[in-house]
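ok here's the first one, seq then struct tokens
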Amino acid sequence: MQEITLEYLLNHHFEKTGLEKDRFTKPNASLRFSPNQLSQLPRSDNDKMTDLKIAMSDIQFNKKMSQSEFEVRTNILYNSFKKCVNSLNASNRRVSREMLAKFVVGMGLSYEEADTLFALESQPLSPEHVLLDAVVVHCIQNKYDISEFYETCGQVNLGVKMIV
């Protein structure tokens, strides 16, 4: 992985900001598959979102931090986080890419851990094409905390706002 510098963030042309709301279309419900065919199909987005929520909950639990420490480190309200990850029905509450970015940076995850979580959300980290992803990689590489994440977002005019 190439090093992502502030100069790269300021001068590179990105295809997306990473904050866009993607529209999901429903698959054709009239298709019928045999059990063997179903086992060969890729997993659904709902299954991936459930796996993402479980992984995020496990990471938060294993860090053994208080609710207030979690909020300070991630700038995510603890009650909002719990409502989101405890709602395993993916259609009720989806983890946004922005929330995931704050979680990854705030929890001090490695690039590999972050990439795995982002792949479960929708797609792996793509710092060449998505500005938010490039900011996340930059923050991971420099071991930034959440305040430095927001500072970097401000420097590159990425509309991520502090909530706590």
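and now the second one, same deal
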Amino acid sequence: MSDLREISFRKINREEFEIFEKWSIKNYAENLIKSGDEKFLFKAKRAAKSEFKDVFPSGADTENNFLYVVLNEKGEGVGVIGYQKSPFEENAAFVIENVIKEEFRGMGYGKSAFVKLQEDAKKNGYIKMVLNAFKHSKISLGMYERNGFKTVEDYGGSVIMEKLL
């Protein structure tokens, strides 16, 4: 794939993780509202915080979580991406984050990071990648589909997608 950007991953550090945690909880709560999965912001925030704590019980050092800062050609942090050992399936990697900063979107970093994430999961012994995507996020859904992911479950406001690596 010659249209991929030169990017690299660096394990997220604790300071970056604290910033990421605040952003992630706020963003997830907003997406729960947009998707229709939650109607009230206070409930969405509570659900987002609870889910974040489930995914990251030990913060940045949570075992079987691979959370990275995406670095561009200049070494600038352009986003955060990661996966965890799936709590639902053996040998499956579950995507826990995939976000590129707004000022770097539309430049190919998201696609490049997502391809690299799949390679990383395969290198770590996973044979499948699974993710949850909000239906209202058309750009993300399109990228996942173009990368070979298929919808396996539909929850109304979101879908579960998967791909063999």
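notes on #2: The longest helix spans residues 14-35. The radius of gyration is 15 Å.
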